[in-house]
Amino acid sequence: AKADGRGTFRRYAAGMDVHMQARQELKVALRNALARNELDLFFQPLVDLSSSRVSSCEALVRWRHPDKGMVSPADFIPVAEETGLIIPIGEWVLRTACEQASGWEGDIGVAVNLSPLQFKDGDLVKIVSDALEASGLAPSRLQLEITESVMLDENEANLHILQELRHLGVKIAMDDFGTGYSSLGYLRSFPFDKIKVDRGFISDLPEGKESLAIVRAVAGIGRSLGITTTVEGVETQEQLDAVNAEGFDEAQGYLFSRPVPAADIPDILRRMGS
Ligand code: C2E
Ligand code: CA
Ligand code: CA
Ligand code: CA
C-alpha cells in the first residue's frame, strides 16, 4: 500500500512538473511576444438590433506563438496577469484598438477588455487618455469592458478610476453579466453604460426556461435604468429571435461574424456598417 501511495504521488508530482514547466515556458515566450510582434488584434462586430447595422467592434487579442500557433487568450491572459505582463499588453491593446477604430468609417465604436490588474497599476486613466489622443478617436467611440472582479467588495479605488474614465467621455460596459455573485448590486454602485449578458445564458435559448427568464429580467432592468443591453455568443437564428423578442439593443456572436483580422473590418462595415 505504501509503495502504491509513493507511486501515485510520484506520477502526480511528475504531472505537476510538466504542467509547471509548460507554464514557465509560456511565461518566457509571452515576455518576448510584444517585442517580436507576435500579438495581433482581431475584431468582432456587435450588431444594433433595431437597424441590423454594426454599432461597434470588440477587440480580442491573439497570440501567434512561433511553435504552438494561435494561443487562445483564455490560456495566456491568466499568464499575463500572473506575470504583470498584462500591463504592457493591455496598453498595447488599447493603443492599437483606438488606432484601428480611428480609421473606420462612420461612428463605429470599439470595445476593449480591461483586466482588473490594469486598475491596480495606477496609470490606467493616463494610458486611456494617451491612446485616445494619439489616435484622435472620439472618446465616446471607446467602450471599456470590465468584469465584476473590478467591482469586488465595492472597491472604492476602482470606483474612483471608473468615474475618472467616465469623465474622459468613454463608455463603461459590464461584461459577462450574470456570472458573478452581485451583478445586480454593482449596477447600483456605478452607472454602467452597457451590460453584456454572458453567453452562458444564450447558449440554451430558446428552450432553456431559466435562461430565458434571466435574460428577460436583464432586458427589463436595462430598460428601466437606461442602460444599453447586449448579448454575446449568439450562434443561431433561434437565439437571435429570442433575444430580439426580449427587446435587447445589441447582439454579438458567430451568427453575424467570428472575430476577424483588423484588415477585414472595413469590408464588413461597408456591407453592414452604420
Ligand atoms: P470575452 O470578453 O467574454 O470575449 C468573448 C469571447 O467569446 C471571445 O473569445 C469570442 O471569440 C467568443 N465568442 C464570440 N462570439 C461567440 C459565439 O457565438 N460562440 C462562442 N462559443 N464564442 C463566441 P476569445 O477571443 O477567445 O477571448 C476569450 C476571453 O479572453 C475574452 O472573453 C476576454 O475575457 C479575454 N480577452 C480577449 N482579449 C483580451 C484583451 O485584450 N484584454 C483582456 N484583459 N482580456 C482579453
Ligand atoms: Ca468582452
Ligand atoms: Ca463577455
Ligand atoms: Ca464571456
Automatic annotation (TrEMBL):
Domain spans labelled EAL: 23-273
Protein name from the UniProt record: Diguanylate cyclase (GGDEF)-like protein/PAS domain S-box-containing protein
Species the sequence originates in: Pseudorhizobium tarimense
High-level lineage: Bacteria, Pseudomonadati, Pseudomonadota, Alphaproteobacteria, Hyphomicrobiales
